[in-house]
Amino acid sequence: MSAHLGLVTLVVRDYDEAIAFYRDVLGFELREDTRIDEEKRWVVVAPPGARETGVLLARAVTGEQEASVGRQTGGRVGWFLNTDAFERDHARMRAAGVVFEGAPRRESYGIVAVFRDLYGNRWDLLQLNR
Q: How do residues 90-102 score in pLDDT, each as one tens digit?
């Protein structure tokens, strides 16, 4: 048996502002944007070159969902954006306005810096040691 993680859901306030951030600021590709009904869309973004996993941007529609926007992992880093060129991507993201919590750190496993998306969710930008 072979399995992989296809999509992970990220609850957002607005489809278009989320698409703009992930596409125009982080450099993700918009893989799909299909209208399901008057209110709901199926929106998938992914880093360039990602083959299997994407992020499903799901607009919050209930009070409980709205309360989770930006806090989906209880303040922990919830997503890990791997790169093969940390310095390039870190500089590009900073120039695009991405907020990093501190300077990059060299760890035993590689180089990492924590950043926040437009809603405050915490992500790692990470280049693993080879």
A: 999 999 999 999 9
Q: How many CB atoms lie within 10 A of CB 85?
A: 10
Query: What angle (nearest 5°) sits at the alpha carbon of residue 27, between those of residues 91 and 62?
Result: 120
Q: Which residues of the chain have pLDDT under 70?
A: none
The class of domain 71-130 in CATH terms is alpha beta
Cα distance between residue 31 and residue 74, in whole Å:
28
Q: What is the CATH number of domain 1-69?
A: 3.10.180.10
Locate 65 and state its tokens. 């969902």
DSSP label at 98?
Answer: P
Q: Alpha helices of the chain — where are they, by DSSP H?
A: 15-20, 63-68, 86-95
